[in-house]
Amino acid sequence: MRKKMFFSNMVKRFTKWSHKGYGVFESFKTVVTIGVLPFSYCLLAMPMATFAQPDSVAITKNVDIEEVVVNARKKASTYSELTRVVRVVNRDELGQRKATALGELLEQVAAIDIRQRGANGVQADINFRGGSFDQVMVLLNGINITDPQTGHHNLNIPINIDAVDRIEILQGPGAREYGVGAFAGAINIITKPDSNSSGQLSFFAGQHGLAKVSGSQNFGTKKLRSFVATSFDRSDGYIENTDFKNLNIYLHTSYTLDKAELNFFAGYQDKGFGANSFYTPKYPNQYEATKTILGSVSLDKSWKNYALKTAGYYRKHTDRFELFRSNPAVWYTGHNYHATDIYGAKLSVSRFYRWGKTDAGLELRREEILSNKLGTPLTDSVKVWGEDVYYKKGDSRNHLMAFASQSFFFDQFSFSFGGQFNHSNKFGDIWTWGADLSYDLYQHARPFVSVNRSFRLPTFTDLYYQGPTNIGNPNLKAEFATTYESGIKMDRNRLMAEVALFYRQGSDIIDWVKPANETVWTTINYTELNSWGTNINLSLNTKNLNIYTDRITLSYAFTESEKGKSELDSYYVLDYLRHCLTLSSQHTFKNLFLNWTIRYQDRNGEYLKYIDTNTSIPIAYSNVFLMDVRAGYVFKKVNIYFDVNNLFDNHYVDIANVNQPGRWFGLGINYRFDL
Predict the structure, then answer these.
(1) Are 602 and 580 spatial neighbours (Cβ–Cβ below 8 Å)?
(2) Residue 67's pLDDT band (cuts 50, 70, 90)
């Protein structure tokens, strides 16, 4: 039976509700009481069109579940909650997890491949479904901050975990919505000012000279809210040349107008670290220093049956890489210096109907690089700021992206399709497209199928890098994939479950390769690389069951890939996680708590293990079983905790010849306060 929706100035009441994505309520800025809500609110919320439906539109699609109450100030969901495998980690879960860096957190919340080079967020590569680190898009509040130089820098984001409101993890292609880079998946990190004038201070100390200090504060008026956070981390390193220092400063301000919201965020990061064997084990005494500056201004506006969003953004990243931190070889001519700049602006409009929704938008994006190693020769050299060195090479590329999509709702069916046109001055015109279909099997189960075309452009490193053991290829083309996916999503009472099967057909895949008996790697476009597998996510809310356990989460991923016939050794595309299992649980005993995560990794492929600079042997990646634990005590607003990373002290590598830390102890204290 269909019921009417009643809207008031302060409280919005719906008679039915289908899912718990919450994203639609952001523009209401009030608390929403829900019994039943239409699917149209959470289907394909495009990144440039994530708005609530206007009050004047009548909705006729209903699904019964229990009544819930949601805070309307949740940020709009970026991804479809119906036809994608999406893992959403909210602020409460972020606080419970034992993680001190974003890469560690991502490993704990989903069965995804985070290939760590350095501990505590020094450097980590994100890999989804057998894809490479360059095939995952990273967004901050819906803004694409993916690094065009190399995906190794994608997690150089000037925030710590305390500053994050929630994280949305999309496993699967997103190029239809986002364009360049969302080849195998995407991660959207969301921050926001809190309505309360709250803050926190955190201190952490551990083995190997590890020290962390962070602070954050919310302040402002009812309409104008700001959030500022800063953190500093350092360590002497767990083995020689693995020391690091990392400074983050971040600000997010939000101003609420009549049916509109203006947002501004900006951040700065300064990081330096010993990069022991990061890029080649022949010269382990490497060092790297990076700086990141980014910012964005956006305006969300809704009226009648329409919603509008505009945004402008900028990101600058500098990188100094030293192949020899000290005692350089006689042939060494100097360090590598790179600076990338990204400018962008985007505009989108959504039109809502009784039977669906239409989205359309444009984005302009420019990517530039200055370097003494990457690019083509400059007419005039540019001095590196603060150094007696000049950028003598560079390159740039422009992108014009236009997208459109249409969603329909027919009884129990939901169907959407859309596409994006991308024009690049360097790579020509590229089309991506996709379609999704889901069916309300019954109240809490929804099977789905989808097909999506995605692509990625080569990075500047892929195109131009020249080194002792690596040579780029300026003739590289874009790589493409068509992904077919089916599965079922269920959310009933305390259990949330997602099961998905996928098959990805890749063509012109970019990888670093070499003949078996040679030592120099170069980049080429493979003819094809096909991958298939499954993702399973289960989450059981056990709160209030008197078993001292709040939540149990299980994630499993299986991936298998097969490349076209080739006699060449591959550096990246075949070193994927075949099996990955993550099990975690949070326990509470009055004021005591215990959180633990167990992770099993079975990595495909092998690498050349260096015995010395002149001798190496092929060796397969070993399976690894890891466990992280956090135990602590909460007293009013003080949280004291004890961490153990890699409890069983297993020795392993995520990336060839880069040894990961063994068992690592630490003690922390967190104090929350209100002004």
Answers:
(1) yes
(2) very low
Q: What domains are defined for the chain?
A: 189-674 (2.40.170.20)
Residue 674: exposure state from Cβ atoms within 10 A (0-12, 13-18, ≥19): exposed
Q: Which residue carries 């300064």 as its tokens?
A: 270
pLDDT single digits (tens) 385-433: 989 999 999 999 999 999 999 999 888 888 999 999 999 999 999 999 9
The whole-angstrom separation of Cα 254 and Cα 75 is 12
Q: Which two tokens stand for residue 62?
A: 């209903």
Name the E strands within 508-645: 510-515, 521-525, 528-541, 549-563, 568-570, 577-589, 592-603, 606-612, 615-620, 624-635, 638-645
- How far is 59 from 443, CA to CA, in rounded Å? 18
Distance (Å, whole) CA 459 – CA 463? 6
**Mean pLDDT, range 26-46, rounded to an integer:** 34
Q: How many degrees, rounded to 5, is the angle at CA 50 between CA 44 and CA 52? A: 100
Amino acid at 315: R
**Cα Rg of the chain (Å, integer):** 24
Using an 8 Å Cβ cutoff, are 128 and 184 in contact?
Answer: yes
pLDDT of 577 above 60: yes
Instruction: Identify the three-state secondary structure at position 461.
Output: helix
Query: Does an H or E element contain 263, and which?
Result: strand 260-274
Tell me the C-alpha distance between 165 and 8, whole Å.
28
- pLDDT tens figures, 609-658: 888 777 778 899 999 999 999 999 998 899 999 999 999 999 999 998 89
What pTM was estimated for this model as a whole? Answer: 0.85
Residue located via tokens 């990373």: 645
